Protein 1
Amino acid sequence: QKTFSPTNFLQHPPTISLHPLHRPALQDVAESRETAALREFPASPNQAEYHGTMADFPQYGAYHNNPVNVAIHITCVPILLFTGIVLACNCPPLLPTPDVLSFQYLPANAGTIGAFIYAIFYVLLEPVAGGLLAPLVIGSAACGNYLLGTYGWEVNYWAGGIHVVSWLAQFVGHGKFEGRAPALLDNLAQALLLAPLFVWMEILFFFGYRPELKARMDKNVETEIAKFRKEKKGKAAAQ
């Protein structure tokens, strides 16, 4: 009779031998469970195409293909996000905040809450890129609250003026250089939510972030642009 020892148990763990006739049934059960798991938890973004909002990046990118318009977009969108958050920080706190959740320059006003919504949204869409962008978005709210608390209403004049100029530059970029209306005219909510992340992804792509995703998105953007030009040509011919 063999004596028990932890070493022998770890080196030779007990095994259960099944009758060969039972194995196909167990394999069928395992395969059915695996299939159900795949339906419930689809493949990760690295293994499958993006679905939902990330799939809208190619369509959104088709609105920003001209180099000049892209440069305007990359410059103005972060400014629009920052100045928009600053202006929203004028709102008084909307929720009572417990001391444990209170942070300096992050009261629960519209600017802070909006920044957290954007940050969480981006992390859910693209965990790595969104995780890098989230501190910048939340930091914008902290900066906005600090500026308003330090300099008062004068900040609003600067933020409001810069905000308007940035919007005008966006429309000039689309009208003069891109040759098509901004994305916000087709889907306002999508454009306002996706624009900052789109710019951030463009910056990360420049530094080599996820080249396989960039290549796939570039290909889809070309398809969207060809589709737009075909529709535009068809409308012109109909007139």
Protein 2
Amino acid sequence: YRLRLLVEGGFVRLRREGLNRFAEILKQEVGQ
């Protein structure tokens, strides 16, 4: 159960970081 929470938390964090990175790339593209 606890391992499942860790795995789900990891996926959520990975998805969030991916979105942040995507936003950073979009900002750079718009800035140019």
Protein 3
Amino acid sequence: DSVDMVGKMDRDFMSADWSHMLQDFELHLGSERNMIDQHFS
């Protein structure tokens, strides 16, 4: 029972970490795009 709980917590942590990484990546892409837009405007 406790092992199942740990597995669920681990999965939740992994998915939260993954979505956080994706958000950081999208933010990074957004700022890169802004820099490019400013450069060519």
Protein 4
Amino acid sequence: MMGVQLHGSTGGCAVRDWRQAVARGLHGRCPHCGEGRLFRAFLKPVDRCEACGEDLHHQRADDLPPYIVITIVGHVVVGGLLLAEKYGDWPMWWHMALWPALTIILSFALMQPVKGGVV
């Protein structure tokens, strides 16, 4: 089994399943225990888990979450736009209203879970 090596407040090293850690992060929970909150603000992670004391200040997601969100949203929006153009007869104002709004909503909805999964 592939795992993640831990270096936290416990002082020792342990191995944790990376899939479980990513799933907990996607839900906005501590990757170590799954109990404490991962974010103190929309995209600002906490320094330390309030439940287990795991140090999280060293976790940096940098630019990866926006790249992942752009890829997901781009595929959904462009795919939807192409399907609407091929099978629908929508007026231009409908496209101008729907696709930018959908892009913004999906981007904000996915950013925090994706960042949690990366952290």
